[in-house]
Q: What sequence folds into this?
């Protein structure tokens, strides 16, 4: 039995071993025929193992099982990614769905990842705080994940969980719409799973120097060393202070922390009077689009890049990787704007 319908292999049957006829279905088909529709002749029978699902009242086909995708993280409630993906799936006529999963502990993360294969998922995004912890749970890691040390999504092919990371690629594409990356002297606040990916990709894209500002010295120094090893670009660690003061010559400031996310909307403790008006301000937060950090940067006269633009750029890549369909950017932009309640 199937919720909302039945298969043609359910219910009482009559007929031979290889072909079955369903009395109640035949009665319905006769009623349909009397309304002017063609009904199968009694001799036209259905194989016992048929996989066709039908509505029990209209006898019309029910769409097949949805292809499931989603996200693992904590917290996830304020992220608009599910509404965005579902709208784009619908636009392209794909019977797919995106489901956010709030996974609060590392033990639950292991259980959730282990369940993806039997549940039939096609792909899964990984967000804070699990981008590093998920790596040993996967069957295969691509070159970007090995270089960066974090995964932000996976594909599931032939029962194998394959880790990828395009966090930094989305950031690079979003920033390139506003300013060139070559020669930028970057200060990044935070160096977690997303931050480390962005730092490496910014270096690969031509940044001249990076400074990572973190509370945890061990984490900051480890990511700085990874950036230097992966790119050869100078990268230093700076201790988090309140307010954060930027090194002289900084041309780009990026918030890669959770500060400013809805509903808390905490301010990022930056010493704004010390930041030159031309400094590019970048925020990874997706909700709200204009965070307290970006609002303060605008008031200072700084050009800004918001996290929603980054989300669109990386989501387009993930969508194509999962579905094989090349999406239109305008469709993603409209979908995420609607998810955020923007006009």
A:
């Amino acid at each position: 039995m199937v919720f909302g319908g039945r298969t043609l292999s359910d219910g009482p049957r009559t007929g031979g071993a290889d072909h079955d006829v369903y009395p109640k279905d035949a009665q319905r088909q006769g009623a349909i025929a009397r309304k002017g529709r063609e009904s199968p002749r009694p001799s036209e029978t259905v194989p016992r193992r048929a996989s066709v699902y039908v509505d029990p009242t209209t006898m019309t086909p029910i769409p097949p099982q949805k292809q499931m995708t989603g996200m693992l993280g904590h917290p996830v409630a304020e992220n608009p990614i599910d509404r965005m993906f579902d709208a784009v799936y619908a636009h392209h006529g794909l019977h797919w769905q995106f489901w956010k999963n709030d996974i609060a502990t590392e033990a639950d993360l292991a259980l959730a990842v282990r369940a993806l294969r039997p549940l039939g998922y096609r792909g899964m995004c990984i967000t804070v705080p699990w981008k590093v912890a998920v790596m040993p749970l996967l069957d295969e890691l691509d070159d970007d994940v090995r270089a960066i040390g974090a995964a932000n999504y996976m594909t599931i092919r032939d029962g194998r969980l394959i880790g990828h990371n395009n966090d930094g690629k989305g950031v690079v594409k979003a920033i390139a719409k506003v300013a060139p990356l070559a020669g930028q002297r970057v200060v990044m606040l935070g160096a977690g799973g997303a931050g480390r990916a962005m730092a490496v990709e910014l270096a690969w894209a031509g940044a001249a120097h990076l400074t990572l500002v973190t509370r945890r010295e061990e984490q900051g120094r480890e990511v700085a060393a990874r950036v230097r090893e992966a790119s050869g670009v100078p990268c230093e660690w700076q201790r988090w202070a309140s307010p954060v003061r930027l090194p002289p010559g900084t041309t780009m400031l990026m918030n890669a922390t959770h500060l400013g996310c809805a509903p808390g909307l905490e301010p990022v403790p930056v010493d704004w009077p010390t930041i030159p008006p031309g400094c590019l301000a970048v925020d990874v937060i997706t909700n709200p689009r204009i965070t307290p950090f970006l609002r303060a940067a605008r008031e200072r006269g700084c050009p800004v890049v918001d996290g929603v633009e980054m989300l669109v750029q990386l989501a387009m890549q993930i969508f194509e990787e999962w579905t094989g369909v090349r999406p239109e950017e305008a469709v993603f932009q409209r979908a995420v704007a609607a998810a955020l309640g923007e006009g």
